[in-house]
Input
Amino acid sequence: MLIDAAVLTAPNEPLELRELELAEPHRDEVRVRLLASGICHSDLSFIDGSWPAPLPIVLGHEGFGIVDQVGEGVSAPRLGDHVVLTFAPACGRCRFCLEGRVNLCLLAAKCMDGGFMWDGTTRLSHEGQAVHHLALVSSFATHAVVPAAGAIPVDRRLDPVVGCLLGCGVTTGIMSVTRRAQVRPGESVAVFGCGGVGLSAIVGARLVSAWPIVAIDPVQNKRELALEMGASHTVDPADGDPAAQIRQLIPGGVDHAFEAIGRPAVAATAFAAVRDGGTTVLIGQPAIGVKAAFPVYDVTQFEHTILGSNLGASTPALHVPQLARLVVEGLLDLSPLVTDCFPLAQIDSALRIMTSGRAGRVVLELAAS
Ligand SMILES: NC(=O)c1ccc[n+]([C@@H]2O[C@H](COP(=O)([O-])OP(=O)(O)OC[C@H]3O[C@@H](n4cnc5c(N)ncnc54)[C@H](O)[C@@H]3O)[C@@H](O)[C@H]2O)c1
Ligand SMILES: [Zn+2]
Ligand SMILES: [Zn+2]
Output
């Protein structure tokens, strides 16, 4: 079938709106009519060339839609199911899947590097030339063919505009707190960066009754959004060293600091804000190869933990429906996170707002396209 999609053909070039050919789903694949896609900073990192992408490619990895065709051998999801797409479906066979760390699945990582499906081919093409998939999702489009295991059925009452964010930003932020760092009630938390991921970490900290929850961001409306979403205090880096400001609020330093920007200097500042024996969690991802520095004596002498977080160490097929249930039952309000919505045809405007740093999450509403 023919679909509309936004295609990256070269780094630092505007995405091109094109009609693409989408082949039928192969065995163990499904086709999804997309309703919404979030824009994550990681999409911007492919566009600006910080991370290499196989070109041409359809970006977007926070997709939500309805299954409208199933390939051979698929027992779930079923036709008509509402699904969140994930870039971490379990192959079930690699060492990480066997360990229960499906977010690190080796086959999914290989597909992400190559821009193809499980079998090494693409379902997307333009005038006979292959077009690559981003991380088995490619949600800047009206439809997508994905592995059946990558389309996670969720409660039909879930609003697609917030539901799509469970594909990456929200799950990463919340689960970095609840699962990767295992934050307990009453422990203190600092979150550096109040974009979609950082705000979700704040939501996660609030869910587990962490206190205080300090949000650090140079943009005023982001600090205000952080307060609305559960932060107890905010820090403006323009007022002086954020680590010193946090230590004034919490003598001795915070129990857990989360870096949700992707700046090595901020990772070092986050470390400096943490108490002896505490934990620094790195979520933000700079260009590949960029290094951060930490004082080794302090790490060893005071048993400081530095954790990397990929999708919050989540198992999407298990945790996405759990988070979706919290949303539909009114226990998790993600609506303030979505500050801007655009149709696919206006993806340039959507990306501009996302790059400006003032947005919470920018969402593409695809049904209206
Ligand atoms: N590890 C993972 O699994 C994972 C998943 C999703 C995204 N990411 C990464 O997380 C990072 C954040 O993603 P996002 O979509 O929330 O980005 P975003 O662009 O929406 O938000 C970044 C925020 O950081 C703030 N900021 C910039 N400089 C700052 C500073 N010096 N101090 C404090 N705040 C500062 C900005 O004002 C903005 O609010 C990106 O690097 C992205 O690639 C990682
Ligand atoms: Zn992402
Ligand atoms: Zn695997």
